[in-house]
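User: ok so my PI wants both of these folded by tonight, can you help

Assistant: No problem, let's get them done. Here's the first:
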Amino acid sequence: MDVELTRSRVDGRARAPPSKSYTHRAILAAGYSDGAVVGDPLVSADTRATMRAVEAFGGRVDRVTDDRQLDVAGFDGRPTVPDDVIDCANSGTTMRIVTACAALADGLTVLTGDESLRSRPQGPLLDAVEQLDGRAESTRGNGQAPLVVGGDVGGGAVSIPGDVSSQYITALLMAGAVTETGIEIELETELKSAPYVDITLEVLADFGVEAAATEAGYRVPGEQSYGRDDTYAVPGDFSSMSYLLAAGAVAGGEEGVVVEGARPSAQGDSAIVDVLERMGADVSWDREVGEITVRRSDLTGIEVDVGDTPDLLPTVAVLGAVAEGETRIVNCEHVRYKETDRVSAMATELERLGADVTEERDVLTVHGGESRLRGATVAGHDDHRIVMSLAVAGLVAEGTTTVEGADHVDVSFPGFFDVLYHLGAELIEHER
């Protein structure tokens, strides 16, 4: 599907979807338990991949009340060997957290995904599994999927880099809780995207599992049990909110855009509120009610470090293209290893829209004062975050902007374009 947008004003109330990061972790935590209920989940292409994995390991996931609730019958800490290959589709989170889970099984699991996922690095996690005396191989010998994993690991100590993906740490912490001795993680390099590990620790605690940071990294004791008596409620997703907030800041009308479901949590991407404030946006956050209001504002370029918030890079890049002055997005090399190389993708597509952009390995600079956005046909790069950020740019670009491959929003924000339309955006969807 392609989406055609013209310059628009947006106003009104909207609710971002539940958090994808929390939903992934909650589904697998419920899978590790003997049964649990996950309320208000994000049911999307990525999280369905995690549901399939839980079922492949011997659990069951029932979607009830219009997907407002997931009833999970878990495998109680002992995953069985799947009957078939586990297809993680485009979900990097699924592949990584499932890789560590597969290492607990008394047999071998084969994991694969789509072309994009098969190009993403898994080597450090495979090496960590081998340090725990498990078997973990890339079938092509390049540290990328397809993967073969198993070994019935019992715990131990691992040393792993922290600057490639925090999901490696999440995977080991979640699996380590049900091993015999637990897992001690030593970080070889500074941890990037640390707030995502904070989310993991929060979800583990909510399911009765103890884990904590140490001077060298992280530690999770073994022989623990996952479980909870009441329904686990997934919070709203700040990564998805960022596009709605950015839309309000660059194209909001008198009323502005009010985003509901914005209650404080461990999500690092709540930093988008601070970014908008620093750029001069008219934004206010009622934390108790869980609502953020933002109106169109004259923005000024700033420097933003995305070391801990890689998913915000596309949003900030678009804000920078509208702002006066220079916006420097620094500490962003790890953002190149997502569904696509998001640094390069945003540089390429913003330039097609008329932005002046300088791309370096670890820095993306958007020269807002020299940028005048004009409608063009831009590629979504099969990446939900690229698609949604370019759609925001289309709200302010002169003329018509066509975003190709727009259906990829289903990964994290199904109905994104419906929400934009109801806020007043002028858009037309075209089936390919």
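One down. Here's the second:
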Amino acid sequence: MSEQVIVDLLKAVGLFFLNPVWLIALGVAVGLGYFRVKKERRSFLVRLHPGLTEMKKLLAESWMPALILSILLSGVGLTVEVSWIVLFSSVAVFSMISFFYQIASPIYFAAIAFFGLYALQQFKPEFTFRGWSPGNVDLQGEMALTVAVIAGLFLIAEGFLIRRHTVDYASPFMTSTNRGLRAAAFKAKRLWLLPIVFLVPGDFMTAFTPYWPQLTLGAVTFSFLPVPIVIGFSQIARASFPDVLFPKIGQAVTVLGSIVVVVGVTAWWLPVMGWAALLIGVIGRATISIVFAIRERNGGFAAAPKPTGVIIAGILPESPGEKLGLVPGECIRKVNGIQVSNEKELYDAIQVNAAHCRLQVIGRDGEVRLMQQVLYRHDHHRLGLLVVR
């Protein structure tokens, strides 16, 4: 028996990793890294992070929120229909292959899947698939509560991931200003995969794994169903720096998720509030994206060239520049006592004392500070700085 349980657990893990959502997400993450590296090299002749970074971070950054959500959903007893999960996953796949990650928030997937089921009930009530029909789903009852609360929790997780894991991987690139000058902007395009365990009614998993854990309440049996949930994010920062803009967006998404959860809980007494919670989530998430995008598009460039020195657009990981604590947007005015105004002058000045580099840096706040760093022969790209060219 114990051996069969282990075999069933391995089968369940295999089903998760053979899920089209997981396989497509893996391929898309590789593509994200490829296009990011290509764009960075076009702008700076060097990439900031390795091309497989997005793939490596696909689960590494999201497994903890996924674990917390899985325990919370199962512990509270929020159940969803398999049909909703299928539609949810189908919309997620479409968003991934479109590479348009402004629409890759799970609130959109949840709402489209929910109202898609409602549309099937209204316009194709006779539709059946292996004994399932839209009429089997009670969208006016428990589903209105559970889907709204789950969607709100997904928004909270999305806000957390945006706050914690977008700033360090914002990709700088060169673009033209309205005056024809060259300035730097920063793009975060991330994809996370959350392995969520849902509680679904019926013995769905026993068809694949007879000894898979189940829960029985009265006459109803529930199965634990592992599902890969996709969260995507895409935003350009140009009027603000990534460490200023992205945490604000993450905070706004987290607050919105909390509101959706609170409104969704009221569906316990008034099911229509679950519908309202989903609409609030969709409208609110779209508003957040639009408002921040307009602000960044209409504002000036934060990393624009200045006559006072060389503007930093990015710092290579584990480089001397990172050890110095330099950040994008700061201005290098002097190197080894020599005034610099462009990239060539910067690296020519470094060669004056290639083993020991002294910098005069103007911070974003306008304060001037002096810094020095020992440079070694193997240091890649010398200071490891990507500068506005």
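The mean pLDDT is 87. The beta strands are 171-176, 182-201, 214-217, 220-237, 310-315, 331-335, 338-339, 356-362, 368-374, 385-387. Good luck tonight!
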